[in-house]
Amino acid sequence: MSNEHTNSLIHESSPYLLQHAHNPVDWVPWSEIAFDEAKKQNKPLLISIGYSSCHWCHVMERESFEDKDIADMMNEWFICVKVDREERPDVDQLYMEAVQAMGINGGWPLNVFVLPDGSPFYGGTYFRPDQWAKVLKGLHDGFNQQYDEIRKSADSLKNALSVSLPEKLNLAPIEEKIPPLSSFEDGLNKLSDLFDNDSGGIKGAPKFPMPVIWRSIVAKNLVKEDPKQSESTLITLKSMIAGGIYDHIGGGFSRYSVDGEWFAPHFEKMAYDNGQLLSLYSEAQQLYPGENFKPVIDETLQWITEILLSEEGGFYTATDADTEGVEGKFFTWEYDELKSILDEEELQFAIDKLGVTENGNWEEGRNILYMNKEAVLDIHSSNETFNNIRKKLYAARVQRIPPGLDNKILLNQNCLINSGLVKAYLVYKDDKYYKLALKNLHYIRENLAWSDKLIHSVGKDTEAFADSYALFILLLLDHYNITQEEHYLKEAAQYMRLAFKKFYDTKETFFSFSADDHNSPVAKQFEIFDQVIPSSNSLFAECLYKLGRYFDQEDWLETAYTMVGKVEKMIKSEFRYMSNWAKVSLYMNLPQVDVVVTGEEAQSVIEKLQTPFNPFVNYMASDKTESSLPHFEGRLSDSETKIYICSDRVCKAPTSNTEEAIVQLSTLFNN
User: Fold this and answer.
1) Across 633-655, average pLDDT
2) 8-162 and 448-589 in the same fold
3) Strand (E) or helix (H) holding 124
4) Distance between CA atoms of 236 and 246, rounded to whole angstroms?
5) CATH 1.10.8.60 applies to domain 8-162
């Protein structure tokens, strides 16, 4: 594409917006100025939303937004606004909900036409050039010739969107203080009917990893294993690694596969997926001690550190699917290429074990590497031939033009990767995981965590959204688990209080997605459903429950109980979209087990008690004589080490014997 045209996006920092800076479309970024201009010129706005690694966003840009004739229509008839959905997830959520309310399936690119006051009246996703031209002409004519009808339709939709999600869902409190575990079990049993026990995941295509679902199932089976659920989960974990959705050469998982076998991905890799998958595979290691997921965690970490890690310690957002305009070109192989790189034995291995064929197993004669799920862990763990293949193909691949990098650094996605590193450290005790987690946490504190608010994106002053607050609070609790340094808990409590002030709605008893000063043009938004990332409200319920236990703060516990209680019926009926809520309800139904260690050897003793790490236990250790935590009251000592094992606020007699404490702890859980 030539640089004959330049629009105002040239002054933006988002890679997605910069991709459109030389379109002949007069794009402007999301701002009040755009709406003021629409009012001044009496034009509707086109709000076009996407992200840098979105394949179909690129396709629509090439086909329509780079077409001069189509661009002239857009410029003459509309104020054209480009939005990076990762920079403004609130705008994306708002207009995605609007399009779905019109009866249209959502997705990206998301193209929504709105009146100058922000009220949507038409929308869709990808349009072919001929379709797009007809839509533009039809909406232009309609706006000028049938404005009253469009206004009426927009007002009706706006009224529908102004009803809050909790109100639409008729969420009401339950009689019980703690939501019953039976809802978790019934919901999971219902979802189990949709498990694909051949290829893993949920039946059908496309297939998304959805770590939030599988982490919930792993957690439940760590408490009480169900053989069928456990088997389905293991099939899923192995199948995802075996498929082409996993990059067997460079590490890391793509966003989804277009088929039902995890074979052919859309090749974009996202920070939020891979961070959560670090957590999932680390937690699954405890459920399946006979399997070895560590090589896949290390390979994924290799991709994160080589591609996503900035020099200062922040993690970038994503890499693209396309290279030189061709999807998957960087990741796939022609047979002759492989023949020229590998020796005879290695080439035969690629044919026998990696699915390679002379004519290619995918498009345009190219091969996607994949494996048999029963052999994949052994091959990645210890197969010398495969290791040699990996090294040779990696060396050849780095000579290619790499996929585009979205170099935004976002708080929520950094928290997800950091938490995955901490989970991996707690399971494997590999210092490299925590060393990187600490480096990144320092970066977050320096660049995104202010004393009075959190920031969404490095280089911007946009306040973080609710999910980022919750994820950062949970991350601080993760770091406390390792270090037992109380400042992490105090900091978490500080941001929890800030979140109450900024997001909590006393009428709905849920947290809105945006702080009040985000000025959403249509409706206040509440995230309830867990999607690829857990909903902000399920995350806050988890924060409140965990912090409430640490600080013995009843009002926070009661708020968590109320939130989970209100969605209890939906956990039962819609487990697929309520799985993090389900995990929080699981925590609430287990004994509240606290391990408190005091004395000069407290830190070394707590590390022994955390092996293996039990995610359902609150571990607290201090070798000091002062603490703000109520659990240490009357127990602190800087000399003799004592261990207190407590369940539901009833403690066994303290012991100085670590082995005895481990036995006491093991008796408090079913297995």
Assistant:
1) 90
2) no
3) strand 120-124
4) 13
5) no
